[in-house]
Amino acid sequence: MPKLWTETIDAHRREVRDAILDTTAALVAHHGLRSVTMSQIAGETGIGRATLYKYFPSIEAILLAWHQRQITSHLQQLAEVRDQAGDAGERLQAVLEAYALIAHQFHGHGDTELAAFLHRDEQVVQARQQLSDLVRDLLTEAAEAGDVRSDVTPEELASYCLHALAAAGGLPSSASVRRLVTVILAGLRAPSLPPPFMEEG
Predict the structure, then answer these.
(1) Which CATH superfamily is domain 64-190 in?
(2) 3-state secondary structure of 57
(3) Which of 54, 93, 106, 165 gives a 20 to 30 Å CA spacing to 75?
(4) How many CB atoms lie within 10 A of CB 68?
């Protein structure tokens, strides 16, 4: 089979797959997880049921593939933001703000049943680890540059940041999300005075 023909077929399959993912996500967001059928997805996508089953065996499989695409896209977006920013402090701020805005944008999309289903997925655990590693590395660089406190390990700081940034989902506006990031960054700055006494443990 000629290479051009193969590439054309592959491109068509990717387009159909993406259309299935987008259609299913939109239907579930509008009607709820339990109200959507494979026949409905096929009809809305403009393909036959037999064709749909060649791509995915079930609605759950479609949603997991859609979620994986979302996760991959968000991680790529954060990596691009990191690579486009300037020094260590600027990279850290840019990534924290980008992540907070993603959390704000996607909070509450779809029903709680869908959210519960997706967050049982192993992909979520892996994505959280990748995100934690990304933030930890940025904090390490910023600490070495003197932009971030060094009296707390980068691993702990990364955990604090991600838990604090989760609040972005419940904030009313992008401006309030950016203020949250400003508050977090203030807490990360190297203290000018010795830290207050804290009990170990």
Answers:
(1) Tetracycline Repressor, domain 2 (1.10.357.10)
(2) coil
(3) 54
(4) 17
Comparing CA positions, the residue from 185, 201, 181, 102 lying closest to residue 139 is: 185
Task: Give pLDDT, residue 98.
Answer: 93
Q: Which amino acid is at 24?
A: T
pLDDT of residue 197: 47
Closest CA to 89 of 188, 199, 197, 194: 188
pLDDT at 196: 47
Distance CA 76, CA 169 (A): 20
CATH number of 1-57: 1.10.10.60
Q: Do the beta carbons of residue 79 and residue 118 sit within 8 Å?
A: no
Which residue intervals of the chain are DSSP H helices? 3-31, 38-45, 49-55, 59-84, 88-106, 112-118, 122-144, 154-165, 174-188
**Residues near 79 by beta carbon (within 8 Å), at least 6 away in sequence:** 134
Measured in whole angstroms, the distance separating CA 157 from the mean position of its chain's CA atoms is 19
Average the pLDDT over 155-179 and give the result. Answer: 91
d(CA 143, CA 87): 12
Do 73 and 25 form a contact (C-beta atoms < 8 A)?
A: no
Picking from 50, 56, 72, the residue whose alpha carbon sits closest to that of residue 23 is: 56
Q: Higher pLDDT residue, 21 or 108?
A: 21
CB 101 within 8 A of CB 174: yes
Residue 108 pLDDT > 70, yes or no? no
